[in-house]
Design brief:
The complex is a heterodimer. By secondary structure, chain A is an alpha/beta fold. Chain A folds into 2 domains: 75 residues, Nucleotidyltransferase, domain 5 (2-Layer Sandwich), CATH 3.30.420; 133 residues, Nucleotidyltransferase, domain 5. In chain A, the strands form 2 sheets. In chain A, strands 3-2-1-4-5 form a 5-stranded mixed β-sheet. In chain A, strands 8-7-6-9-10 form a 5-stranded mixed β-sheet, covered by helices on one side. The longest helix of chain A has 19 residues. By secondary structure, chain B is α/β, with parallel strands linked by helices. Chain B has 2 domains: 94 residues, Rossmann fold, CATH 3.40.50.11890; 123 residues, no CATH class. Chain B has 8 helices and 8 strands, in the order βαβαβαβαββααβαβα. In chain B, the strands form 2 sheets. In chain B, strands 2-1-3-4 form a 4-stranded parallel β-sheet, with helices on both faces. Chain B has a 4-stranded parallel β-sheet with strand order 6-5-7-8, with helices on both faces. The longest helix of chain B is centred in the middle third of the chain and has 13 residues. Chain B is globular, with a radius of gyration of 18 Å. The mean pLDDT of chain B is 94. Classes of the chains: A alpha/beta, B alpha/beta. Chains A and B meet through helix 2 and strand 8 of A and helix 8 of B.
Chain lengths: 226, 246
């Protein structure tokens, strides 16, 4: 049995495979406490355990475990980056990862929610969007809107739509896709994609699920047979 | 030039053998495309921001190395950026800048590209051979586990992501073959080998790299200098799901 860890930029997701316990801690706390894992993924996780799996592999494998369709497109919106995998019959047919155009967007939305004390579950999505090429530039646009008299809630809603549209274009504007990461819990973000697009949130433990495959692959044959 | 040291000649690209060969005997040859320890980056103010890392490096080296002469291949095997750089060097430095065009089509062979050696060693040897040609007996790899198409990388850690025996394709292969302008060799991609297509960010070769990647179901990546975590992860994931193990 093992401890699996997805050490994200802001949040660390942990799973104890013995007890089945799942928990999330701020990454700065995990770092301060010297948290390690038997199998690790995530930003700066290469040295946090005996086995490291890169985020794209963990994401793809997590999708394979959690999604039944033979073909799927799975988008992960993290604190500092955006990445996706397109799988077909177990083969990786498309992928990308941007830490520049999608930089800090998830982190910024979280920050804005706290700053303006916004409950994202009660905010209506906007039909307009802020051009969010990165979190910092998007925030500049948002403050400009507020200074022009747009309400804070509407400005943040436009920002959320800007992030959603950026991510949507990044993955090739599919009719439906699966979503991974902290944004799965943000109702405003989920509703900020174009009408008719099917967004299926899988939660924050997709990469950790992907680590399970690594664990199973390395387990002795008799253990796998059990 | 002081009498105590040999004439120091820098070269860029792959000048013809008829030019390089006599220089090997009479001068200290320095490949300006490669990293030279201790050279600072001073080219930023002289070049547009959309200049590839290799052109930047050639200029950095040319400015820093107290050269007596520069030989630059600005023919079909190089690019517009190199031709522009040749003008810039000629106008900025007080040393001769010799322009060459290497249209050679006589193949020297590609035993290094097709050997069982680790990929980093292969590229190192191909680059070294321009300065110091050697005939090493190398075991051929009949079934390469993967292939890397492209030009020599600015960051050699790229090569560590590939298993030993990875085949060298693209312009780096042309370089070993001493046919830098041979489009047929450059676009050669054997079927059935998981192939990563690499070019420097801002390099026009990205058009060909992306096209070939789509045609051969490979992976296209571009890197500006240091290998980033996303590009590293993409290559690792591509090889992983193709069943290639290091």
């Amino acid at each position: 049995m093992a401890l699996l860890g997805d050490f994200g930029t802001t949040w660390t997701k942990l799973l104890d495979t013995k007890t089945g316990r799942r928990w999330i801690v701020p990454t700065r706390e995990a770092r301060a406490e010297g948290q390690r894992a038997d199998v690790a993924t995530g930003h700066n996780a290469r040295h946090l355990g005996p086995r490291y799996v890169n985020e794209l592999i963990a994401l793809a494998q997590g999708g394979q475990r959690m999604i039944e369709e033979p073909e799927f497109l799975l988008l992960d919106v993290g604190s500092r980056d955006v990445k996706y995998v397109h799988m077909r019959d177990g083969e990786l047919v498309g992928m990308d990862w941007t830490a520049t155009c999608g930089a800090l967007t998830g982190f910024t939305l979280e920050l804005l929610g706290r700053y303006y004390e916004i409950d994202y579950s009660s905010v209506e999505p906007s039909s307009r969007s802020v051009p969010v090429t990165c979190g910092i530039l998007g925030m500049e646009q948002l403050f400009e809107l507020v200074s022009q008299g747009v309400s804070e809630v509407e400005a943040v809603a436009r920002f959320a739509r800007g992030i959603a549209m950026n991510a949507f274009r990044f993955i090739g504007e599919p009719r439906q896709f699966y979503l991974s990461g902290g944004m799965c819990d943000n109702r405003l973000f989920l509703r900020s994609f174009p009408d008719g697009v099917g967004v299926r949130p899988l939660g924050r433990f997709v990469l950790v699920e992907g680590l399970m495959m690594e664990l199973e692959a390395s387990a002795p044959a008799e253990e796998r047979a059990r | 030039m002081t009498e105590s040291r040999r004439r120091r000649v820098g070269f860029a690209g792959c000048p013809p053998e008829r030019v390089l060969e006599p220089l090997r005997k009479t001068a200290e040859l320095i490949d300006l495309d490669n990293v030279v320890e201790g050279v600072e980056e001073r080219s930023e103010s002289l070049l547009p921001r959309t200049t590839c890392r290799i052109i930047r490096r050639i200029l950095d080296n040319a400015l820093a190395l107290d050269l007596d002469e520069i030989v630059i291949d600005d023919g079909y095997g190089k690019c517009d950026a190199a031709r522009g750089l040749a003008d810039l060097l000629a106008d900025s430095l007080e040393i001769p800048v010799i322009r060459t065009q290497n249209e050679n089509r006589e193949p020297s062979g590609t035993p290094i590209s097709d050997s069982t050696l680790p990929l980093a060693r292969k590229v190192e040897m191909i680059l070294d051979e321009l300065v110091r040609p050697q005939k090493a007996e190398l075991a051929p790899q009949p079934n390469p586990p993967a292939a890397l198409w492209g030009v020599p990388a600015a960051d050699f850690t790229l090569y560590e992501l590939f298993p030993d025996g990875t085949q060298v394709l693209g312009w780096t292969r042309c370089l070993e073959n001493r046919t830098p302008a041979d489009w047929e060799v450059e676009t050669y991609v054997p079927a059935g080998i998981p192939t990563v297509f690499f070019a420097q960010t801002f390099c026009a070769k990205n058009i060909l790299a992306q096209h070939l990647a789509q045609r051969h179901k490979g992976l296209h990546v571009d890197v500006d200098g240091v290998l980033s975590q996303p590009v590293r992860a993409k290559i690792e994931a591509f090889l992983h799901f193709k069943g290639v193990r290091g």
